[in-house]
Design goal:
Blueprint lengths: L7 H21 L9 H8 L3 H13 L3 E3 L6 E3 L2 H7 L4 H19 L2 E8 L2 E8 L15 E3 L4 H8 L3 H8 L14 H14 L2 E4 L6 E9 L5 E10 H4 E2 L2 E2 L2 H15 L1
Antiparallel strand pairs: 1-2, 3-4, 3-8, 4-5, 6-7, 7-8, 9-10
Helix pairs in contact: 1-2, 1-3, 2-3, 5-10, 6-8
Length: 261
């Protein structure tokens, strides 16, 4: 009597495929998405609705996805933040940056952010809101932004190795607003300017009506390992084409760099 056995490699491939599909669902949620219907999740992940629904149910049981009982739409759950809380080696950097971000937010009145490069995107690993009545709600902790969008992300992109920059510029670039720089030649010029002056002022390119200012954070060997940035209404961030609070950010980034050692 013989028993039919499937090759282990097929079983392994199936398991890996399931994991990749589940991850594609988590990554389908973008910064501006509060919730997504099943059909849109299926479209963004190129999965059929039945497969997407099964994966969503599994992610819900693990606390990574939540479903609105009334609209039946889906949103990321708090379990995603729990996963991000253990991210290494960013934990020490985030801990050292927290008082610096708090000081920046207090001095400027606007939200301060700490971002790093992760998986071809800018990942927010630290945020402190300022005291202004109107606060920017984009780029929460654990949120991702394209590297070409916004002051902090573009600072990170500017100091990527040249081969990485060229690879990123060769891909289709998403425009979050009509003013997002997506033309490779123009974006290459912007990155050169960032490296020359050491900061970036972004205007209307993530959300219209919002500006941002970003600076690089270097380790003891001079390598750029993160970006500190602020974001708020135009009047709070810039004076014409010049940034407000540049001296504050430069001073606080130096404090952070000394703490890093």
């Amino acid at each position: 009597m013989t028993t039919e056995m499937r090759p282990a490699v097929d079983e392994e491939a199936g398991a890996v495929r399931s994991v990749r599909r589940a991850l594609s669902i988590l990554r389908a949620f973008r910064l501006a998405d509060r919730a997504l219907p099943l059909g849109e999740i299926a479209r963004r992940t190129s999965l059929d609705k039945a497969t997407a629904r099964r994966l969503l149910m599994t992610l819900m049981r693990e606390g990574l996805v939540e479903q609105n009982a009334e609209t039946k739409s889906y949103a990321l759950g708090l379990g995603v933040l729990e996963l991000g809380a253990g991210l290494q080696p960013c934990a020490d950097l985030r801990q050292r940056a927290q008082p610096v971000l708090a000081a920046i937010a207090e001095a400027t009145g606007v939200a301060a952010f700490l971002g790093v490069v992760h998986d071809d995107a800018a990942l927010c690993i630290g945020r402190v809101d300022g005291g202004r009545a109107i606060q920017v709600r984009n780029w929460s902790i654990g949120g991702r932004l394209p590297l070409h969008c916004g002051a902090g992300p573009r600072v990170l992109m500017a100091w990527q190795p040249e081969a990485e920059v060229q690879r990123l510029l060769a891909r289709p670039l998403e425009a979050m607003t009509p003013l997002t720089p997506v033309e490779p030649g123009r974006l290459a010029e912007i990155l050169t300017r960032i490296r020359e002056r050491g900061w970036e002022l972004a205007i209307d390119d993530i959300v219209e009506g919002i500006s941002g200012l970003g600076l690089p954070v270097r380790d003891g060997e001079g390598a750029v390992i993160a970006a500190v940035s602020i974001s708020g209404l135009h009047r709070d961030i810039r004076d014409g084409d010049r940034p407000r609070h540049l001296d504050i950010l430069q001073s606080k980034v130096r404090d952070l760099e000394r703490a890093i050692g």
